[in-house]
Amino acid sequence: MNASVGLSLVPQRTELTEHLVYARLAARMKDEGNRRVLEEIAADELRHHDFWRKLSGVEVRPRRLLAALYVLLARLLGLTFAVKLMELGERRAVQIYGALDHVEGVRAIAEDEERHERALLAMLHEERLEYAGSIVLGLNDALVELTGALAGLTLALRNPRVVAMVGLVTGLAASLSMAASGYLALRADEGRGGTRSPLKAAAYTGVAYVVTVLLLIVPFLVLSNIFLALATTLILAVLVVAAFTFYISVAKSQPFWPRFAEMAAISVTVAAFSFLIGWLLRQLFGIEA
Questions:
Q1: Which residues contact 54 (CB under 8 A, 6 or more apart)?
Q2: Does residue 1 register a pLDDT over 60?
Q3: Domain locations in the chain as residue ranges
Q4: Any alpha helices (H) in 89-159, and if so which ranges?
Q5: Global pTM?
Q6: Residue 283 burial (C-beta neighbours within 10 Å; 0-12, 13-18, 19+)
Q7: CA 190 to CA 195: how far, in whole Å?
Q8: In the structure, what pLDDT confidence band is assigned to residue 190 with cuts at 50, 70 and 90?
Q9: How far is residue 160's CA from residue 157's CA, in Å, rounded to a whole number?
Q10: CATH 1.20.140 fits 3-125, yes or no
Q11: Which of 81, 189, 215, 267 could form a disulfide with 194 if both were Cys (CB 3.0 to 4.6 A apart)?
């Protein structure tokens, strides 16, 4: 087997695996527009595989476990996230395109990958991304407000269970307030050409807020050392920021580090100031442990 044939097996297997993923996703898709997009991409991937098979003269099998993983990610985290994450994983195959650029037809396949499939992916419509702004609103406000509140309460109260209770009441009340504000803001935009449902936007904002609140107060319920609980909460907050920023950066093709650094810095800074305010209030009112 010559070098060109050996190299061609990597993109050949990649294209066949992606064909399998897109075909499975299309078969599960209820939205007619998205199904047509996925079927077209699946056909392109199969055509690319056939090109590489003709070059190599070798039959390959798709990576079925990897295909199953991407289908599962699509069901759990959304279609757009899964397929764009899969496209990011093509780097090795793309590098091989460059190494085989001298082979007739390879450049056309590479250009097709860059142009046609990216354009098709941009056509995908997914509700959870349409309301990503509402999710960010609930998530970011919960992280900033609750990490700050929990930090201040930690020094003011010194009792992890009491801090958890007060934090939960504060967080749930704030989630209702945020959801109502989001609803009213979109209701005001309905006459200006807004397409998002105010009720759905409010639901996404409120749910994102509540889930974040519940996650952040868990350390205060399971740890007896209140300062360890606060440290754990801050670590969880940074991890939540990292996870959601990665999700948005992949699904919306946005840079990861600037957004992550901004959100993490805001949350930690607010927590630090709130911790200081809690200490000052404790001294001012002469509260003893």
A1: none
A2: no
A3: 3-125, 128-285
A4: 91-99, 106-112, 118-122, 127-130, 132-157
A5: 0.81
A6: exposed
A7: 7
A8: low
A9: 8
A10: no
A11: 189
